Amino acid sequence: MAKNISSSQKEKNNVPGNFTQNNILIENELNTIGKLPSDLANRAMVLLEKTTDHKMNIDHKIIALEENNQKMTQYDMRKFYFWSGFGIVCAYALIFSSIGVCIFLAYNDKPLTAIVSIIPGVLTAITEIIKALKFKNHKK
To answer: 116-123 long-range CB contacts below 8 Å, 24 or more apart?
Structure first.
């Protein structure tokens, strides 16, 4: 409940729980309920208690959802880092095995096959370089 008040009324209405803002008296809900008839005040108090309980239940549910979300995010990040590391290891294994096969075939006088065998390693290396450059630019 808000009412325009004069300075003389401010002193009269200086009840704990009320405050004045921009010459408007803003009363506390409990003070307002206390001024109501007893039946209506009881109904208002029950409604106020139910509203408070509902808000608390909603807050508890929100907190529980946030905690679950954080746990799932941690689990997903662990999986992401595991598979990311696995992909990097496989990429380097492909690059080095491709280089090894190329050197072996070049040593055994099969230059065309050696050139063809290095293509997967070169493509993988190019992909890794592009990813590294994107990650470096993304950090800036």
So the answer is: 120/94, 121/94, 121/95, 121/96, 121/97, 122/98
Please name the helix (run of DSSP H) or strand (run of DSSP E) that holds residue 19, with its range, or none.
strand 19-21
pTM over 0.70: no
Q: Please give the angle made by the CA atoms of 28, 44 and 17, to the nearest 5 degrees.
A: 10
Q: Helices (DSSP H) in 3-37: which residue ranges? A: 7-12, 29-34
**Per-residue model confidence as pLDDT tens digits over 78-95:** 888 888 889 889 989 999
Quote the CA–CA distance of 53 and 45 in Å, as a whole number: 12
Q: Tokens for 52?
A: 């408070």
DSSP 74-115: HHHHHHHHHHHHHHHHHHHHHHHHHHHHHHHHHHTT-HHHHH
